[in-house]
Structures are given as C-alpha cells and as structure tokens.
Design brief:
This protein has 275 residues and is α/β, with parallel strands linked by helices. The chain is built from nine helices and seven strands. The longest helix is centred in the middle third of the chain and has 28 residues.
Length: 275
Amino acid sequence: MPVVLNRHQGKVAIVTGAGQGIGLGVALRLAEEGANVVIAEYNAEKAQAAAESCSHFTRALAYPVDIGETDQIEQMVRDVVATFGRIDLLVNNAGVLETLPLFDLTPEKWDWLQRVNQRGLFFCLQAVAKQMVAQVPESVKAAGKADRSYGKIVNFSSIAGRSGRPYAAHYSAAKWAVISITQSAAGYLAPYNINVNAVCPGVVPTPMWDEIDRVQAERFGLEPGGWIKKTIDSVPLKRAATPADLAAAVSFLLSEDADYITGQTLNVDGGVEMN
C-alpha cells in the first residue's frame, strides 16, 4: 500500500475525468491528503458517486462538465472560486480513446478525439491558470518571480505520446500535443511560480483499457483479455499499473516536494519508455 502523507491540507483541487479509473484514483488520493476536491466529470451520476467517496476524507464537490465546451469550463472556474474561494491544483485527466487503423480515420473521428484530449485540456488549463495568476500578489507579479509556488498543474499525456501508434494515430497525436502544451504553459507561468508538469501512464486496467482490449482482441483474433495480457507481458516490471500508482506520482508533482520541477513529463509505465 502506498504511504499517504498530508501534503495538500486545505488546498482546492480540480480533477477532470474523475468519475472513474485513474481520475477517481487521483481524486481519492488528494482527498486523503487533505485537499478539497472538485470532481469535474462529464457523467453526472459518476461525478456524484466519486464525490461521495472523496467526502469520507474531505470536502468534495461533484461538478458535471463537458470540457470540450469552453463556456462550461469558464463557468466551472467561476463556480469553484465562488464555493471555495480559490483554486490551487489542477489535474487535467479527462480523455477519450479509440483504436482505428490509419486508413479508417475520418475527419469526424479526428475532431471528436482532439476536442477533449487536446482542445479541452488546453482551455481547461488556460482558464484555471488565469485564476491562479489572479491569486498572485501584485508585488510578486511586478517582481517577475516568486519565492514559492502559487499553483500546480498536472496534465495527463500517455506513453502513446512518446511514439506513434499505427492503430491510434489521432490519440497519439493528441498525447504528443499534451507534452508540448505542458512545456509551453510551464514557460509562460514560470514568473508566477506556477508549476506545470505531465505524466505518461502505461497500461492501467480501467474501463477504457477494457474497451481497447475488446476491439484489439477481435481485430487480431485473440481471446478476450488476450491483447491486454500481451501488452502487460511486454512491460519490464511485468505488471500493469494501478490508479494508485498514477495517483502517487501526481500527488508528488502537486506537492511542495516538487516546487523546483516544471515543464517535465514523467513516465509512470513500469519501464516501457525509458529516458
């Protein structure tokens, strides 16, 4: 079991896509460490259930939102500030995935995926970062540097953002873009000491991965579970990740322990990608 510290006491955290899987794992970890957690989730029922789970540890707010709609993102930021008074942490986890051969990708499929994974992530980061900058004292802004962190953001990329995927070119492109967005935002927000980093998960058994396995197993004539087993067998540490594995890495990057880390992308994949 991971060691749960108390690094986020009283902070306000938004976690997108927190209704299940990795996002829920991250929200629970932050709640256990004392953060007030906003469950920013497309599915209202999942958002409420996740908030109820987090409320055993801290204050939690279910917030149904479609991050593909910029007006909904902006309203969410206003509502969170009205409720909690500030925003300290953002985890951009929400995303969609499908596997398709290169020649089967259509403009509609491309745009559907980029709407959430790239465009939605960017504008969520932008809206929250504006609020974080607004919270920085004017004297700090004038100085052009800060002696402490005024906010932390973690974006979810993927090991698919480290190299191309012949059966998920649109997904891989979006996750490559997340790494670039992370670096651009880290540079822009550095004068305010707002840290921006990313993580690249590998194989994590979640509903999303169950769907990948179903499609890929059928495509390549494997038994159900065969694709994910083959993928896990290729992991140097010989196991899949858990949501708790990702949550521990994210919690670290959001903590004061990572105050001098920004613009970085951390692989949390059991050694699949090494750099």
